[in-house]
Design goal:
Strand order of the largest sheet: 1-2
Low-confidence stretches: none
Structural class: mainly alpha
Oligomer: single chain
Shape: elongated
CATH superfamily of the largest domain: Cytochrome c-like domain
Bound molecules: heme C
Helix content: 40-55%
Number of domains: 2
Length: 187
């Protein structure tokens, strides 16, 4: 923060002196006012931007994501790393759109089909990797995979992008692996 402020400050001082030279009639207080407003804006930007990208404390502490974690992306068993930022974004999406029915990984309207790892694995086809979770969100199917499931919330592409549903799936998968008490089927 210090470095990034010093540079604009130098620029500002230079243009401030330049402005005074070219417009000797401009009241000094007016120019100072503009300079202060600019600086306040810069400081605000400086403080606001890093805060936005802050890792989620639950993801950090309870899902144990200190560095990118490898998650299985399809049924071939291939993996790719997901960063704490991606998983934190997934958590936010989950809270906005899924938590009402799936608080703590449970499924309130149908408790037996929770988001626990065991239950996800037991579905046909298994829902324990990124691609199969994404496929489920795009078109929810019954637990045995034979018909459409109407109880869950379908996520069309017009609502969440491919990257967003992948982040959301990464959060669910990591929570199913690590989240304390995640996906209870009886309560
Ligand atoms: C209105 C309540 C509701 C909302 C909101 C909801 N779900 Fe569901 N979800 C359900 C129900 C009910 C089921 C079980 C469906 C069935 O009968 O097969 C389910 C099942 C699932 C399953 C399959 C679980 C398994 O073990 O096979 C996944 C994955 C899932 N939901 C993800 C999501 C995601 C992601 C969101 C947010 C975008 C979401 N759900 C929002 C009600 C909901």
């Amino acid at each position: 923060m210090q470095l990034s402020l010093i540079i604009p400050l130098r620029h500002l001082t230079r243009s401030f002196n330049g402005l005074l030279r070219s417009h000797p009639t401009l009241p000094k207080s007016w120019i100072t006012g503009v300079a202060i407003a600019l600086l306040t804006g810069l400081t605000w930007l400086n403080l606001a931007l890093p805060a936005q990208a802050a890792p989620d404390p639950y993801v950090l502490r309870y899902l144990d994501v200190n560095e990118p974690v490898e998650l299985t992306i399809d049924d071939s068993g291939a993996t790719r790393p997901f960063s704490i930022e991606e998983i934190s974004k997934g958590k936010r999406l989950f809270e906005d759109s899924c938590k009402n029915c799936h608080v703590g990984g449970a499924t309130l309207p149908n408790p037996l089909i929770s988001l626990s790892l065991e239950t996800l694995k037991g579905a046909t086809p298994p829902r324990d990797n990124i691609a199969s979770l994404v496929a489920y969100m795009r078109e929810p199917l019954s637990y045995d995979g034979t018909e459409e499931a109407f109880g869950c919330r379908q996520v069309p592409e017009s609502w969440l992008s491919q990257t967003e549903v992948e982040n959301l799936s990464a959060f669910i998968l990591r929570a199913a692996q690590k989240g304390p008490g995640w996906g209870a089927t009886s309560f």
